[in-house]
Amino acid sequence: MGGSAKLIPREAADYTRLSVSMLAKLRVSGGGPEYIKLGRKVIYERDTLDAWLASRVRRNTSEI
After folding, report:
1. Distance of alpha carbon 48 from alpha carbon 60, whole angstroms
2. Which of 3, 6, 28, 62 sits at a 20 to 30 Å CA gap from 35?
3. What is the per-residue pLDDT across 44-64, written as a single tens digit (0 to 9) for each?
4. Which of 19-23, 25-29, 58-62 is the least confident region?
5. What is the Cβ-side half-sphere exposure of residue 47, based on CA atoms within 13 angstroms?
């Protein structure tokens, strides 16, 4: 874990403007931001969320 702020799923959902349930679905299906699993706890790093959000930027609707 780096020096980035650590966020619990509720905080990560607020930060990304996604729902907590959508983040949970992305953890199951893949394609979501990387996360850290500590026992039953899930932690997101803010830098990882920023990188994931940046990777989602599109110029038009025909981009994959």
Report:
1. 24
2. 62
3. 999 999 999 999 988 888 876
4. 58-62
5. 6
Order the strands of the 41-45 sheet from edge to edge.
6-7, 41-45, 36-38
DSSP letters of 37-61? EETTEEEEEHHHHHHHHHHT--SST
Whole-model pTM? 0.85
Contact at 8 Å (CB) between 7 and 44? yes
In angstroms, the CA 21 to CA 27 distance is: 10
Task: For residue 34, give both structure tokens.
Answer: 């990387």
3 state DSSP class of 16 = helix
